[in-house]
Amino acid sequence: MPELPEVETIRLGLEERLLGALIKTIDLRDQKLTRGQVDLLTIKKLVENNYLVKFGRCGKNLLLFLSNGNILFWHLGMTGSFKISENIEEIPYLRAYLETDKGYLLYSDIRRFGKLGVIKSTNELKKGIDPLGDNYLYDNFNKLLTSNKVIKSFLLDQEKISGIGNIYADEILWKAKILPNRPANSLSTEEINRLFKTIPEVLKEAIKHRGTTISDYRDINSNPGEYSERLKVYGKEGKPCNECQGIIKKIKLGGRSSCFCSDCQK
DNA sequence: ACGTAGTCCTGACGGC
DNA sequence: TGCCGTCAGGACTACG
């Protein structure tokens, strides 16, 4: 579910509501959340009785910076979402929560693909270039496009560019007018330029509209994202393209469905 | 080094 | 109504 724009929307919401809050308790109801890398007692020791001094994001990871210098990273997987509440509400699929002096941060996750852990530095997260970060520079981007792997899979590879998921990969390629099955190293200079520019454009526009809701995604105030109304190709197979009236097609690439307009995209 | 398929989970939807 | 297959915003592993 949550790709970069959704995680960023959540980050902004948390900043508004929980910046400076004191964490009293962390509880994990689903032990799978840490993938066996840390036990609950250790997590508690590292996290409890700390202030939330900053909220960050790294690709699709949400980062909670603690006053003891540790960072709690939280990946929402496919269906993770947060809600802030005065009490522990027994919301469905509640998998973890933080009790703070500014309220409870409840985490629910239907499919249990979410993951969290405590790190000392963001270097510990495997990650590529964040398209909204300082390292997103043309030369760095260009250097990555050397393989013949299809461009759609390249965009989804978090170790190259981090934050793009299946929805935005399709939307970006449509806007950049590039077919999803083109080998990455076959792009012309002009196409690379277009792609380089389009990636942050689409992501920023989506953040402006507080992300995309297909079914599960909600921001921390339980509001759906409004970028769903602006999608041009994702989930639009069989419908006419906005731009040219051609019919949107759907194919599988790297095991993921990919929607595109074969007239607009070359 | 690459692509692909299987795996982890749970729920929704369509076809018969 | 019920059963079954397929699919879903992600990402890891194993295999060829």
What's the short version?
With 266 residues, this protein is of the alpha+beta class. The protein has helices at 4-18, 40-47, 138-144, 151-156, 166-175, 189-208; strands spanning 22-28, 50-58, 61-66, 71-75, 80-85, 94-100, 103-109, 115-119, 248-253, 256-261.
The number of E-state strands comes to 10
In CATH terms, what is the fold-level topology of the largest domain?
Helicase, Ruva Protein, domain 3
**Number of DSSP helical runs:** 6
Name the overall outline.
globular
Helix content: 10-25%
Strand content: 15-25%
What does the largest sheet look like? 8 strands, antiparallel
Indicate the radius of gyration in whole angstroms.
19 Å
Give unreliable regions as ranges.
none
Please render the helix and strand layout as text.
Layout: H1 4-18, E1 22-28, H2 40-47, E2 50-58, E3 61-66, E4 71-75, E5 80-85, E6 94-100, E7 103-109, E8 115-119, H3 138-144, H4 151-156, H5 166-175, H6 189-208, E9 248-253, E10 256-261
Antiparallel strand pairs: 1-2, 1-6, 2-3, 3-4, 4-8, 5-7, 6-7, 9-10
The chain binds a DNA duplex (16 and 16 nucleotides) through helix 5.
Descriptive report:
With 266 residues, the chain is α+β, with helices and mostly antiparallel strands. It has six helices and ten strands. The chain has helices spanning 4-18, 40-47, 138-144, 151-156, 166-175, 189-208; strands at residues 22-28, 50-58, 61-66, 71-75, 80-85, 94-100, 103-109, 115-119, 248-253, 256-261. The strands form two sheets. Strands 5-7-6-1-2-3-4-8 form an eight-stranded antiparallel sheet. A two-stranded antiparallel ribbon has the order 9-10. Helix 1 (4-18) packs parallel to helix 6 (189-208) and helix 5 (166-175) crosses helix 6 (189-208). It is globular, with a radius of gyration of 19 Å. The protein starts with a helix and ends in a 5-residue tail after the last strand.
